[in-house]
Structure formats: structure tokens, C-alpha cells
Sequence to fold (816 residues):
Amino acid sequence: MPVQSSKVADEGTANSAKARDECRALLDSLNKVTGCYKHLAIGVGGSSDCSNLRDELRRTRERSQDLAGVIRNKLTAVLRDKNLSREERAEMERLWVIFSSNLESFQVDMCKVLELGQGFPLSAAEKPLIQTGVSGGTSEVAARALSVQNIAHDTSLDVDNLDLDELEEQIETVDRMMENMEMKVNVLRWTVEAKGDAYHSVISNDASSVALLSAEEEIRGSRCCNRERCLVSMLFCTVALIAVVLSVCVVNLA
Amino acid sequence: MTIHTARIHTAKIQMACLAKMEKVIVAMQDPDIGVKMKYQKLLITAIPHAVTGTDIVEWLLQNLSLTEEESLHLGDLIVKYGYIYPLKDPKNFVLRADDSPYRFQTPYFWTSYKWPARELDYAIYLAKKNITRQGDLLDYEKDSYNLLHKRINHTWDFVVMQASEQLRAAKQRRKSDRIVLDCQEQAYWFVNRPPPGVINIMESAPKRNNIHTTKVKLIEYYKKALTRSRVKSSMSLEGFVKRCDQYLLHDPIVSGCLPCNPWITSGTLFWTLNADIVTIPTRLRVERWAFNFGDLLHDPLGHQQFRYFLEREFSAENLSFWEACEDVQYGELSKVEEKVEAIFEQFLAAGASKWVNIDSKTMEKTLDGLQIPHRYVFEDAQMHIYMLMKKDSYPRYLKSDMYKSILARSIVPPETKKRSFLHPFLSSMVPFMRWHRHANPGSAQMFYPKDGDGKGKDMTVSQLCRFSHPMANLGVFTGPNIPIHSEDAPSWSQSSLPSFCPGILPAATSPSCSCTDPKSLPLNTDEVSLETQDYTNVEDTKISENKEAEAEEDEFGWTTRC
Fold:
């Protein structure tokens, strides 16, 4: 008997652990998508604004909506389960707080995008875009955002003014979602403690990623953008080589 | 967590000055007449869309037809509000009319009151900076970082996650864009969270209420409040209890009114008996005059009686003076002056007809106050006379023959009851439905707590009947039950004595019910008649004994039982 019950308990804990890991993974994806959305939103109205950007924004937004819906269902289901152990509940509440902060940021970004999109319609020629100095494309960022797991996705629609109305509706959906969340699950925010680095060690090592980030930056910086610098340095190298050869010759001669 | 909605925020209007600046900025972008854009040369890369200070000033000068000074000032304002940020000296948001480069801020980072910079975003920005610079933040940034870490600690995981994510996303862009994005964000946070010493343009006008003075006032107020004399609650409660005890019998709701409550029975006898001036007052009323002087004076009949008494004692002018002062206090504002004059003539002037005896100090003060007559000039004098009467005449009145005689004359109106017209049995039960008041000391003993034997001493006949009936022991209480004033009252209400309630029990078993509850009577007749055959038989014998002694008809044709 005890063996069986412990087995059941193990299963139960295994289930909850699985749910927890799933939630974490999903949250990570949501975080990625909202971060990219914000990054793209910065470009609206600026010199890099174009229909592509709007399209990317839309797709990113849809993706994050899907993710948010899934996470919400999962988290609500888990948190309403009365049989959670205290540690489990603390962990889930932490995830909940992360989720709600994410949603909040996302919503603010959506509202801003709506407003800016209305303020800077791409079709109108009279309203030029602000020359902000940003000239590159944002497709990589969008690709990063959309590389998260695809939940259930409608075929992409045409990019036109429908996007903005949709956006408004989406904003309201998110509003309702957040309200709903607050109603259903009562999480006391002040009791949640951020784990800080411990969390990151699970998904990605923060310290190492920091190092990676800065290191990568150096490499990429020197690599991708400074073609001209490469050429110049190569030129220098050849000139130096020639100089060395000449000096050797001179020495030899002498 | 705040919940924003797009609707709510579109309803808010952007601040006017900011909207105008935005228009100017957009106008500057015009490819034809806009500002000339140059390239910013950084090491190897060249970033487009840089503007020199002179260009900005010139453009403003030409397109908005301003003077040079004005255009410089306007340009400076635009820079201060973050729509254009300097490239060379990022810590100094000043427009220099030379070739120092500036760039336009992206609309997402435009200054806005609709979308104020959030703490969370600032935390994310600082976290990003912390990660890239590996802890090398400016002092005020460090302070803010620590403060935020403490304040929004619960969501710090999110902050760090977002920060790293945004850094990773930014790495996907090319170098020049990254530089621009960094500069943009830095400029945004410089405007929205300025370092100490820099003017915060997001601040509104100086606050109206100076915090310091309001706090000082509050402190003073509370200090004074501490020194206020307080009465111990036990003492004030004692006083309250005493007052309640004293006035308990006079309260018509608690103790019921004799003869009957006009609101229940629709009989106005009570009001006629207690009219303002009546030859034979009720005993309660007269007794009340002895409680305190105020009660005597405010009762019209008492007032009148007191006046007669004082006339006999030749000190009626005091009362007249007091009445006149009251009149001034509560009378019409327009007549105040003339009344004051009249009072002075009558009561206070030397050799006046009704001169009142006031001590010299008060007299002086009053006479001084007469220069500017107002309602309360006679307040001191009135108080003096009032205390005089209270200390001197009032006790004498209470001991006087006048008072005693009126007390003896006063009546206690007997309680009336509506005669039941519906059923003979019911009418015979009437004496048991009576509500006996404390005024009849004999009947007060009728109400004993229901203990085991149910028979106390000194029980009257009707009570014996009640307790002998088996149904008297039922503990159902469903009807209105007006408690009576006796020590037994609390236990009585819990006892098994049922009240006269419709349709549940025989009415006769309840000795105390609203004697004048007409609604309950009609309903009861049918049930009662069948059930209480035995009981009424028992009763009849008792009743017949009582009937002769007690039955009397009052003026309304109701049979009352004393």
C-alpha cells in the first residue's frame, strides 16, 4: 500500500513538475516574443517603419496572444488546484507574477503601437516618417520572435488598415484576460519572492549569458558591420608585408 | 497591477504643448521644406539623419516666422522635452546654435503624459545597462536600481528576463542601428528620469499645498487634541445609564404610553391628555418637572406653573428676562436690535420697571456689549439669571404647595384596550391580553420567569390560569412582543410564554401582548375557539370574579380593566 501511494504521489509530483516546466518554457517564449514586440514597436513612426514592420508587429502580436492564452489557462488551472504544496504554490505564484507583468508590458506596447500606427499611417504621403537614423531591417528580430513554438496559427492576413482595428480588439481581449485572471486567482504579489539567478540557471545561465552577450557583441560588432575596416586592415597588412619584403631585400642586398 | 484600456487612454488628450511640438517635429521631416539631414560620422560608420543646431534654429526662424531669440528658445524647449536629442554631449540637453549634431527621437519614445514612463520599464533599462556595463552605473542610477529592486522585488525575475531578452533582440540589428537605439533610449530616460540637478520637465507646477505647513498644522492640532480633557468611559457610561434609568418610564417606545399609543391604536387620547396647557396633566409629566430645571422650563405647562409661583414670590421678572433673552437669541435677525433695546429699557436700565438683579461685573460687560447689539449680547446675563432661578427658585418651587397640589391632581390615565368585537370567547380572554404596566405594582408581579414549577408567589388569578394550561408551556414566539419594564423582562422574553400571535397559539395564553394589535385579533378567532375550550372554561370562572370589580367603560366605549 505505501509503495503504491508513494508511487501515486510521485506521479502527482511528476505531473506537477511537468506542468511547472511547461509553464516555465512557455513563459520564456512569451518573454521572448514580448521583448521582440517591444523592440519592433520602437521603430513605428521612425525611418525604419514600413509595411514589413507593421506586418511583423502583427504577427508577433498574434503569436504572443496565443501564448498568453495558453499560459493563462495552464497557470489558472494549476493555481486553482487546492492540493498544491507550498513550494509548488510559491513557484507558481512567481510564474504568475512574471506572466502578469509580461502581459501588462505587452498591453502598454500594444496601446502605444495602436496610437502611433494611427498617428503615422503608412499610406498617407502628407505625414512623413520621423527620420530617426535607423535604417536597418527588423526582420531578424521578428524571426527571433516567431521562432518560438507555434501554437495554433491562422494564415496571415493582408496588411492593411484592418490591422489597427484588430489591434484595438486585441487590446480589449488582453484587458479582459487580465481582469479575468485577477478575478479567478488571488495572488498576493507582496508575498512573491524573486528567485533571481536561481531561475536563470534552469533555463539559461545568466552569468555566462552575460559574458556571452558582451563577448558576442564584440565579435559580431567587429565582424558584421565593419567590412570597410576589414578592407583597410587587409590593405595595411599587405603594405606591411611588402615593406617587410622590401626591407629583407634591402638587407639582403646590403 | 494597473489595467489600461485603449479606450481609456484614447480619451485622455495629450498635453497641448507636447502636441504642438509634435506637429513642429513632423513638419521638420518634410522632404521638401524640412530640415536638412546630414550624416553623423562615427569612426567608420556613418549614421544618417543628423541635424546641426544651426539648421534647427534656421528652420524655425524661417518656417514659423520667429525672431532669432524666440527660435533659439523654442528649439531649446524642443530639445528639453526630448523630441531632439544631442549626439555629442548626451548629458546636456541644450540647443546650441552651432554645428553640434542632434537627432530626432523616435515616436515611441516621445514625451507623453498618456503613457508615462513606468517603473518597470526603468528597471528593465537599468538592468540592461547593468548587464552590459557589468555594474558600472552612475550614482543616481545605482540608487534608483537598488530602490527599484526593493520596491518591485516581486517582479524582478521578469525585469531580468526582459532585459536579457531585449539585449539579445537588439543584437540582431546592425551596428549603426544599435548605436542609434541606444542613444534613443538613453535620451528617453534622461528626460523621464533626469539625474539630480537637472530640471524634470515632467513635473507640474509647484504644488499648491506646501507639505511642510500642512504637516506643521496637523502636528499642532494633534498636540492640542492630546491635552483635551477626557472623561473616562466608565464615568460617562454611568451617567448615561443613570439618565436612561431616569427617563426610562417616560419613553413611549420603551415603556409604552398611557393610555394607548396613538400610532398603533389611532386614538388621540394621549395627545389630548398631554396637550400644552391642560388643566389636569398626567403624572409622568409632572414628575418629570422635578428632574431638572430645563425640563420644567421647556414644558409649557410647567413653565406656566413656575411663572405663577414666581409671581407669588414677586420674582417673576427673572423669568420674563430669561424669556426675552431667549426670544432675542432665537428670533428674527431684523428684530434683534429693537428687542435688545426693549430689554434694556425694561430690565436693565436703572429704575426699570422690571429690574433684574445681576452682579456688577456681568452688568458692565452687558452694557458694554450693547453698543453693538447682536443675538448674544445678553448671554452672560441670561446665564446668570438662569442659574439664579435654578439654585434659588426652582428648589423652592418643588417644595411648594403649588407643585405638590398639581402633583396630587395629576392623573395616571388608565390603559385602554380595544374591545374585541369578534368573538365572545375572545372577549373573555381580553383581560389576559392586557399589558400590565409598572404603574400597577400588583400586576408587575405577574411576570415571572418560567421556571420548573411555573408558580411564583403572589401570583394573580390570571397568571394562575395561564400556567395551568398545558399550552402555556409552549415556547413559540412568533408575534410582536413588546417587552415590559421589569427585572424579569429579559428572562421573560425567553420564557415559554407565547405572545398573542396570529394563528399559532391561543391568544389567551399570552398575558402580554400588544393590547392594541388589531391585526392579530381577527385571524385568531377561528383557531382559538376550537382549541381553547378547556381553557376558556377555566378562565370564565376567574373572569367572572374580576369582571365586576374592574370593568368600566371609558369615554370611547371601550371596556377597560384596571
